[in-house]
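Q: Two folds, back to back.
A: First:
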Amino acid sequence: MSEKNKTRSIPAFHGSDIEKISEYFRIPKEKIVKFGANVNPLGLSDSLKKRLADNLDIITEYPDRDYVSLRKVIADYCKVDMDHVVTGNGSTELISLLISHRNAKHALLIGPTYSEYERELSLNGGVISEYQLNETDNFQLNIDHLFQSISEDIDFIILCNPNNPTSSAIHKKELTTLLHIAKEKNIFVMIDETYVEFAPDINEISAMSLVKQFDNVMIIRGVSKFYSAPGLRLGYGVTSNESFLKTLKTYQNPWSLNSIASLAGEIMLQDHEFFQKTRSLILSERERMINELKLLKYAKTYPAYANFILIRILKENLTSYDVFEAAVKQGMMIRDCSSFKGLDGEYIRFCIMNPEDNTRLLNCLQELLND
């Protein structure tokens, strides 16, 4: 929490705390636009809703234990070998399995980042270190500096790309260097690509094409954000480390993914119209919002590769909570980033929603962060 906010008794809200926020501010949750959840504003596609409604009888049968059809769709979607694909009950299950069965003695988190990684690592009992991205570099990772500054006993690295909450990203050339050096040092790398489909150029940010070359990496993805289905709990991972894949499948609960989620995944990942519609909305609105945010007198806007934008508040005596409170009172829930470790200062984060809602938020911020 920032120094300004430490002096005040204020509640801590996270991106999905819509019920708590609704109760605290006495605003019906249906009237709050969730700028803090980072979920696609388009919601589920109509074709998906119809296909699922027409196939509800699928729950009368067990899903295929090996999820062959779904894994084939995922492999085609990611342009990888189907044998390198594993499915899970949300990306959270796969992150947990990966961390627990890698049994890292000394793990390194590249932050500021998603708090769930540290929670899972702490349950495993190993040493956890952090490498903080530099604000003066717009939170862009310097690979050479990273390996010059970490200890020799690091055996596991966790990287979110694009990163939450900074929306910064590492490009494929840098990822290749990272994995090459990590391979030489016997370091396994987990890359969380939850937000990669929102990147301006997916192929330039994703490490999927490197999986065949490097067996010291596992890429984690899900459908919660891009496909607007956090309640579905569908995640998947990709790695060419065959012995580790075998271990994962041994310890994973059978049928960890239900029949509806399995079918929905196949439908979603083949819905090219929804894919293009989402990217068209996010890419155009992100550019518009960033251009307007850069005009704010008392804010610094960082380059954004995900579907959310991080800004730093530079106005004296105006805290991140002040901005959060002002926005939520107008029916817009953004993220006060004071709870993120490594974000020293006043930061807020908000995702890209529908154009009319984005305009409302921009107007709110202009009132607060200009003269």
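A: Second:
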Amino acid sequence: MSESTTSNLKFTFPKSERLHSKKLIQELFTEGSSFYLYPFKLIYLKQPDAESDQVLISVSKKKFKHAVTRNLIKRRIKEAYRLNKHLISHKDDASDKVLIGYIYTGKEVLPYQLIEAKLKKSLYRLIKELAD
């Protein structure tokens, strides 16, 4: 990347990019499409009227009994997304906004490097699926 491109990127994860609206979450799960890429099930839905791409991250309480463990996994996913969201959000077209739900389906806590690699793969696949 060139110097000017790097300075325009914001590696932040503000509240406006987090999916927290119950109505939108319900819509994502009822109308959204999905695919599975271990350790994630990714659910997505195009949302033309959204101001930005929004992400939901979920870790099963049934598989990970302790909140500390669930939060560790969520922090790793959020960090990986924060550093790689430019892969999908570089489009400024309003029709390209999308709601994304990451559901962690792994049975053990994976290291950050593996989570980041799989998240990148899932973002590339998402771009491909949205283009179709």
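Q: And?
A: The longest helix spans residues 112-131.
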